């Protein structure tokens, strides 16, 4: 655990971004609240710029999340705080980019991503336990998003895209 340096203001860019505009500060289920807060942005990116742009946006969110989470961890002395939810943002955007913009597919994507993030099957759980620091905070959720995206593609193929 790193040593606490100085408190961060709620207005510090690392706090705003790592908590995804403070949604991670929810007293109940911050990961779910953060994922829900990410959905409208993801849907808008997908709708106006397309699925590839949302895939790129998820990579950008990963990079921004790695940076902001590194600062947040260094300044708070925490290792994997629940209030940091930008990892959920990157992960759900990656999952959503494989979906179709229908209410059912958005709901299925959200539920699959959250289930994978909460249950942490291999390799998600292994990454969560073994990879530390800001990269560790980010990578398990990104892999959850990747697995959810693969499952979404399979679901779409099975149901012939009629969702």
Structural class computed from helices and strand pairing: mainly alpha
Put simply, the count of helices is 7
Overall strand count: 0
Estimate the mean pLDDT confidence.
94
Quaternary form: single chain
Low-confidence stretches: none
- β-strand percent reads under 5%
Helix content: 55-70%
Large-scale geometry: globular
Number of structurally distinct domains: 1
Distance between the termini: 46 Å
Major sheet attributes: none
SSE string? HHHHHHH
What does this protein look like?
By secondary structure, this protein is mainly alpha-helical. It has one domain (13-156). The protein has helices at 13-18, 30-49, 51-76, 86-96, 103-119, 124-130, 133-158. Helix 6 runs antiparallel to helix 7 (133-158).
What's the structural blueprint in terms of helices and strands?
Blueprint: H1 13-18, H2 30-49, H3 51-76, H4 86-96, H5 103-119, H6 124-130, H7 133-158
Helix pairs in contact: 2-3, 2-4, 3-4, 3-7, 4-5, 4-7, 5-7, 6-7
Key attributes of the depicted protein:
single chain; 163 residues; mainly alpha; 0% strand
Brief digest:
Helix content is 69%, strand content 0%. It contains seven helices and no strands.
């Amino acid at each position: 655990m790193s040593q606490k340096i100085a408190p961060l203001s709620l207005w510090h860019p690392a706090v705003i971004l790592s908590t995804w505009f403070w949604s991670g500060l929810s007293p109940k289920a911050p990961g779910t609240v953060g994922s829900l807060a990410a959905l409208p942005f993801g849907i808008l990116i997908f709708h106006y710029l397309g699925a590839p742009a949302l895939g790129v946006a998820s990579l950008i969110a990963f990079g921004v999340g790695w940076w902001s989470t590194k600062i947040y961890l260094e300044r708070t002395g925490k290792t994997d705080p629940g209030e940091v939810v930008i990892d959920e943002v990157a992960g759900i955007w990656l999952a959503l980019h494989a979906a179709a913009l229908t209410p059912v597919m958005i709901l299925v994507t959200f539920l699959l991503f959250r289930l994978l993030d909460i249950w942490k099957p291999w390799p998600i759980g292994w990454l969560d336990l073994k990879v530390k620091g800001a990269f560790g905070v980010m990578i398990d959720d990104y892999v959850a998003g990747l697995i959810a995206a693969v499952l979404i593609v399979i679901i779409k193929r099975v149901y012939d895209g009629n969702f």
